[in-house]
Amino acid sequence: MAAYLGTYNPTSILTNLIADPGLSTGGNFATSMSFSVAAGATYVIVVHGINPAITCPSYTFRRTITNGCRNTGFDAANDGSADLALFRPSGGLATWQTKTLTGAPTSTQLGSSGDIPAPGDYTGDETSDVAVFRPSNGTWYTTTNPATNYGAQRWGISTDLPVQGDYDRDGITDLAVYRPSEGNWYILRSSGNVFTQVTQGIAGDKPVPADYDGDGKTDVAVFRPSNGLWTVRGSSGNYGSFTIQRLFGISTDIPVAADYDGDGKADTAVYRPSEGNWYVFRSSLVAGQVSVFNHGLSGDIPQQADYDNDRKDDYAVFRPSNNTWYINRSTAGIFQQVFGQAGDIPASSPNRIP
């Protein structure tokens, strides 16, 4: 099969071609492809290579339409803008404090001291849910409802790091862990409850899951502080090949991958605490072009997310020394607000490094 923009000309099969799934000989036919068109545009899907003399000319065609929305960050209001979110692990029962930039704070109890915050959309209703991963028993708690045992599900061991994301593009956050001792990713897909294992990483690597290839699925990726190497295995290649392998950063940098240019692909990026600079290798630029932006101080915790609903992630930090958020919104300007207390863990960014 193949996709064409506007019209299809059988005498010139490369004219207007915008997508195809690759080689399709024999029984190795690739079963999916993705492409983008402007609102109101016409596209044509052509299914070819059906030989009635060999097999029945029948097939099933499934179309999945997405509106280009991304993971904005923690968005409980479902307004397309990331909220301020904090996980407060003090006491026997932890508390989440969340609020829109201009709204009143909301308090929710879920988790305990030692848990790792792992928010996401676990119900598919397009709103963010508070959730935690508990290393002590390898259990995820994804709901605040005690009647469901807080959505408890075992997935992981004590040394795992949560790397939740939408790995199957069904709109539901999947449980996933990165196991540093093995360099393995263990992903439990919500669609069909299917288990996937991907090997990527070594001891010392930092997991940086995000959608780097723009297909709407979370990709397996790591940043290696020892040499600044980024390695991404794209979901568009079924994690079988490197989508990105790039030297970008130094050992003291914090990886802050996000979509800063709004093209639907996560950019490789680092925050350098010693300088307060963000270094971004934008996917929309040609190789070698890097943008540098100063925003933050040493000790700040980066919280990149889309806080102004323009589909571009913004430079943002939470400063524990004064419990203040500093956000430079790409279209709405500077935002600054005191929100939090000593010991709080910010959890607004969709790609927080545990």
- If helices are DSSP runs of H or I spanning 4 or more residues, what is the number of helices? 0
Q: Based on CA inertia axes, which overall geometry fits?
A: globular
| SS content category | mainly beta
- Share of helix, binned: under 10%
Beta content: 25-35%
For the record, give the distance between the C-alpha atoms at the N and C termini, rounded to a whole number: 42 Å
- Based on CA atoms alone, the radius of gyration comes out at 21 Å
What's the layout of helices and strands?
Layout: E1 2-5, E2 17-19, E3 43-46, E4 84-88, E5 95-99, E6 106-109, E7 116-117, E8 132-134, E9 139-141, E10 153-154, E11 161-162, E12 175-179, E13 184-189, E14 194-199, E15 206-207, E16 220-224, E17 229-233, E18 242-247, E19 254-255, E20 268-272, E21 277-281, E22 291-294, E23 301-302, E24 315-319, E25 324-329, E26 333-338, E27 345-346
Can I get a quick summary?
This protein is an all-beta fold and 354 residues long.
How does this model look, in words?
The protein is an all-beta fold and 354 residues long. Helices cover 0% and strands 31% of the residues. The chain contains no helices and 27 strands. It has strands at residues 2-5, 17-19, 43-46, 84-88, 95-99, 106-109, 116-117, 132-134, 139-141, 153-154, 161-162, 175-179, 184-189, 194-199, 206-207, 220-224, 229-233, 242-247, 254-255, 268-272, 277-281, 291-294, 301-302, 315-319, 324-329, 333-338, 345-346. The strands form seven sheets. It has a four-stranded antiparallel β-sheet with strand order 6-5-4-27, with no helix packed on it. It is globular and about 70 Å long. It starts with a strand and ends in an 8-residue tail after the last strand.
